[in-house]
TrEMBL record, chain A:
Quaternary context: Heterotetramer; composed of 2 small (MOCS2A) and 2 large (MOCS2B) subunits.
Family: Belongs to the MoaD family. MOCS2A subfamily.
Residue numbers of 1-thioglycine PTMs: G113
Modification after translation (UniProt): C-terminal thiocarboxylation occurs in 2 steps, it is first acyl-adenylated (-COAMP) via the hesA/moeB/thiF part of MOCS3, then thiocarboxylated (-COSH) via the rhodanese domain of MOCS3.
Pfam family, one: ThiS
NCBIfam families linked: moaD
GO BP annotation list: Mo-molybdopterin cofactor biosynthetic process
Cell location: Cytoplasm
Record organism: Nelumbo nucifera (Sacred lotus)
Identification of the protein by name: Molybdopterin synthase sulfur carrier subunit
Automatic annotation (TrEMBL), chain B:
InterPro entries (alphabetical): MOCS3/Uba4, Rhodanese-like_dom, Rhodanese-like_dom_sf, ThiF/MoeB/HesA, ThiF_NAD_FAD-bd, Ubiquitin-activating_enz
Catalysed reaction equations from the record: [molybdopterin-synthase sulfur-carrier protein]-C-terminal Gly-Gly + ATP + H(+) = [molybdopterin-synthase sulfur-carrier protein]-C-terminal Gly-Gly-AMP + diphosphate; [molybdopterin-synthase sulfur-carrier protein]-C-terminal Gly-Gly-AMP + S-sulfanyl-L-cysteinyl-[cysteine desulfurase] + AH2 = [molybdopterin-synthase sulfur-carrier protein]-C-terminal-Gly-aminoethanethioate + L-cysteinyl-[cysteine desulfurase] + A + AMP + 2 H(+)
Source species: Nelumbo nucifera
Protein's GO biological process: Mo-molybdopterin cofactor biosynthetic process; tRNA wobble position uridine thiolation
Entries under SUPFAM superfamilies matching the protein: Activating enzymes of the ubiquitin-like proteins
Pathway field: tRNA modification; 5-methoxycarbonylmethyl-2-thiouridine-tRNA biosynthesis; Cofactor biosynthesis; molybdopterin biosynthesis
Function: Plays a central role in 2-thiolation of mcm(5)S(2)U at tRNA wobble positions of cytosolic tRNA(Lys), tRNA(Glu) and tRNA(Gln). Also essential during biosynthesis of the molybdenum cofactor. Acts by mediating the C-terminal thiocarboxylation of sulfur carriers URM1 and MOCS2A. Its N-terminus first activates URM1 and MOCS2A as acyl-adenylates (-COAMP), then the persulfide sulfur on the catalytic cysteine is transferred to URM1 and MOCS2A to form thiocarboxylation (-COSH) of their C-terminus.
Gene name in the database record: LOC104586577
Protein name: Adenylyltransferase and sulfurtransferase MOCS3
Keywords, sorted A to Z: ATP-binding, Cytoplasm, Metal-binding, Molybdenum cofactor biosynthesis, Multifunctional enzyme, Nucleotide-binding, Nucleotidyltransferase, Transferase, tRNA processing, Zinc
Amino acid sequence: MSVGGLSTMGEQGGEVETQQANILPKASDDSLLSIKVLFFARARDLTGLTGISLEVSTGSTAHDCLNLLIAKFPRLDEIRGCMVLALNEEYTSESSLVRDKDELAIIPPISGG
Amino acid sequence: MESNGGDAFRILEEIETLKAAKSDIEHRIANLQVQIGGVAVEEMTDSILCPPISTNDAGFGHGLSPEMVYRYSRQLLLPSFGVKGQSNLLKSSILVVGAGGLGSPALLYLAACGVGRLGIVDHDDVELNNMHRQIIHTEAYIGQSKVKSAAAACRAINSTIDIVEHREALRTSNALEIVRKYDIVIDATDNLPSRYMISDCCVVLGKPLVSGAALGLEGQLTVYNHIGSPCYRCLFPTPPPTSACQRCSDSGVLGVVPGVIGCLQALEAIKIASAIGEPLSGRMLLFDALSARIRIVKIRGRSLHCEVCGENAAFTEQMFQDFDYEKFTQSPLTPLPLKLKLLPENVRISAKEYKERVVKGEAHVLVDVRPEHHFKIVSLPKSLNIPLSSLEGKLPEISSALKEEEKCNGPTSSPGASLYVICRRGNDSQRAVQLLHKMGFTSAQDIIGGLESWARDVDPNFPIY
Ligand SMILES: [Zn+2]
């Protein structure tokens, strides 16, 4: 289990600790995937992080990942219905399966200018 | 008297000398003119000062006048741009909606590069707190229309293009008429209802939309409704809740961040107008200033089910005009600061009343519930900073401050010390008072209108931000 795949900066410019989310009960290592989650814009405010690494079970979809994230950061629910979801820098639907070392980006719209 | 008469004589004499020199120079110009084929002197001098907008064919087959060739030479030298790109650009028209942080650099570059017709829409006036990012405006224009200021700046850079001033807010009632006159639209606005409205308008009229946004230290950029790319609604069919839509006036923005995005908007618009390169359609650029990272994410194509641009969508001009974007997004097109009214009058006092109580020496504690970085900008003397987000856990601090205040004022203050709450504009202070009442601090009162009303009604020298 590798801790600290991401070194993150908080929105205020201060160092924010890298987080490793162990949400699922630990099973055998084969059944777990580790993905990198990137937060943008409002998602950064709501989590206080630019990203985390997340362990999910094999067969999880982007939808499952989002549910886990909202369980960990309940305030993320605010943008649940309004975001671009990108898997490895490409648009993805929530039903897509995630693979080990995938990068899931959560991109709510910015409206300022 | 006499010396004045002498001065006047000398001046008249100098005028005569200069006139003679001028006539001599004009004569020489006319002679040279004859040598190269006889263009009238006057036309020539006029065109140097203010060359005609028309792409009068100078006989080189590309329609660029000698002045244009010289002005745009560094672009013409680009093999992928060249005279073809420049002619396309000179024939194009681009509308920039918003002359703020994004619009400023976009307009400057679009004027400079020779877009044939450049439209500017904005209803706002220039303010001092715009200057750090809205770099098209100068201090001399503070209090004047942003469109007027931006147009003057564009004309100062390039007097040969057509600059059109639309000094009004873009609304469903005027958007079709304005947008129809342009080939490309740049969304440089700062609010959600405008973003949906401009996107829908571009779909209805079939215009490419170069959309940029910036807040804090992040920016986003994409081209909507262009060669198969989605519209704003394809990506965000349901508007985000108002709490998710932050504005620069609340969250802050580093000036150069919209600057970067605005420059990129100009670039994308130039590429589309001159028909070069690969536009940022179907991709979104994410700019992260703090980590110095730019990511480009492939976004979805046009949604078949989109209510506006989808296969079976029947979103007509009439429907556009009737659509209520403020209701749809639950936020106003021309945002004003939020003014909540959560508390009954008897638990609120004005800034003036608070000042009177301070002068009377009333025993009290003033809690300032703004975030710490706001408190560091400016605060009232002796106020205690407990941000709203951490208020619940810091009630003991308030209790001990109240006890301390009562002790200092001795037995004379029999009813105990009062508790006042203040914030920037008087919204969070009401939320805080509601919470304090619930937690047993039943005497808590909020100061109506916050520090802004303190600055307005009590101390005009108190800094506002
Ligand atoms: Zn659409």
